[in-house]
Write a structure and sequence with these properties.
414 residues, mainly alpha, 16 helices, 2 domains
Length: 414
């Protein structure tokens, strides 16, 4: 037992003292921070600078749609090209786009169509980053470290996504749009250069190339993901969770606070902050626990708890009750996602990790707008958001039971 404890200590030490992992972590933080700042700045300029609130959706659709398509293609590139060079290309390309916008803002009032085109390009290059990182991470850390490594990265992403708009809001009040885009550009370029120094545990892995046609590899990724029982189960789980959680809960938070609790914008910020705090805390806790056994079963149990949490949240009578429950629900989000991501990285073939991760991420990301649309449609029929939350929680719990018995490999998988 003493030997096992010493081995675990070595694993922990090597993770946080690994130069390659730290470079990957920093690049991820900078990428997420720049994306959240970029979206905030463009949104604020469209609303406050141009006064075109109705056109804001066009800019955001351009960014998210191009990012989704790019993630699918990026999964293939990550498996057939050097992922560190892909991350370098993603960061530096976005840095160039940011410096271009800085120049335009310095010269004139930027029209909406320029922002839409720039957002589409930014999303396209940004979509290459995540598949490359997901493909690279299992080659930087040991299999036993994947859960802890993913929790560290996901926790940092949540902090970056939360702090990005706050930081951009403070900076825009004391400086110009041009200066802000220059800062983003410099950070991205520095992070892009730094990621080139990431070394994999497999010396020749980074030089791997494939002569297979791009279309064939993309098709192979789909077939491989669907034919492997465990990966198929994980794909279905991810889609179900995002569909039943995203619209009713994520989109429903401000509606619930304003319509059900009669809260103010300040009180909504408390609830939204509670969700973010819970997600950060959940990432830290799952990293400390570092699950290695029965991760599939734990994920299913926690999804069931998510459904119960949303059910209880829908019955909140006060703001502080809502905050307390949403912190708990927020903790469960990374507690579900991180073990599932780690399982995919551990079980997928090393030459297909990029494609599998990009397909699963894109599948879940693609259903978020659909979940928003369905929630909006039901709200338009006059159904209140608390009822929608209750109705969504029930099929989510039923899905957990069905998946538990339909995919025994999922509940047995470590």
């Amino acid at each position: 037992m003493e030997q096992s404890y010493q081995e675990e200590a070595v694993v922990e030490e090597s993770l946080f003292k690994s130069k390659s992992f730290l470079l990957l972590w920093v690049a991820t933080v900078v990428s997420s921070l720049s994306m959240s700042m970029f979206m905030f700045i463009q949104s604020w300029y469209v609303v406050e600078g141009l006064g075109l609130e109705a056109a804001l959706g066009i800019v955001l659709i351009c960014l998210t749609t191009s990012r989704m398509v790019s993630m699918i293609l990026g999964g293939v590139f990550a498996d057939r090209k050097n992922p560190t060079k892909m991350m370098f290309l993603s960061d530096v390309s976005r840095g160039v786009l940011a410096i271009g916008l800085a120049f335009l803002f310095f010269m004139m009032d930027v029209p909406i169509w320029v922002l839409a085109v720039n957002a589409a390009l930014y999303g396209m290059f940004g979509g290459l980053f995540e598949p490359a990182r997901d493909s690279l991470l299992p080659k930087v850390v040991q299999t036993e470290q994947l859960t802890r490594a993913n929790s560290t990265i996901q926790g940092a992403i949540q902090v970056a996504v939360f702090s990005g708009p706050l930081l951009a809001g403070v900076l825009i009040s004391v400086t110009s749009y041009s200066t802000l885009f220059i800062i983003i550009s410099l950070c991205l370029c520095i992070a892009g250069i730094g990621v080139l120094f990431v070394k994999t545990r497999e010396q020749h892995d980074a030089q791997r190339e494939s002569s297979a046609a791009f279309k064939e590899q993309l098709k192979e990724g789909f077939q491989y993901t669907w034919k492997a029982p465990l990966l198929r189960a994980l794909f279905i789980v991810t889609i179900i969770v995002n569909f039943f959680i995203s619209g009713p809960l994520m989109m429903g938070l401000p509606i619930f606070v304003e319509g059900i609790l009669n809260g103010t914008s300040i009180e909504f910020s408390f609830v939204q902050g509670g969700l973010t705090f819970g997600m950060i805390a959940g990432s830290i806790i799952i990293g400390i626990i570092n699950l290695k056994k029965k991760r599939g079963s734990y994920a299913l149990y926690l999804i069931g708890l998510q459904a119960i949490g949303m059910l209880v949240f829908s019955q909140s009578q006060t703001i502080w009750m809502a905050v307390a429950i949403i912190v708990f629900v927020g903790m469960l989000i990374p507690a579900v996602n991180i073990p599932l991501i780690s399982m995919i990285q551990a079980y997928a073939d090393s030459d297909k990790v990029g494609r599998v991760m990009s397909l699963i991420r894109t599948g879940s990301l693609g259903l978020i707008p659909l979940s928003y649309a369905v929630t909006s449609f039901i709200l338009g029929l006059g159904v209140s958001i608390d009822v929608i939350m209750v109705v969504s929680a029930i099929p989510l719990m039923a899905s957990v039971i069905i998946l538990y018995f339909s995919f025994p490999i999922l509940r047995r998988a470590d």
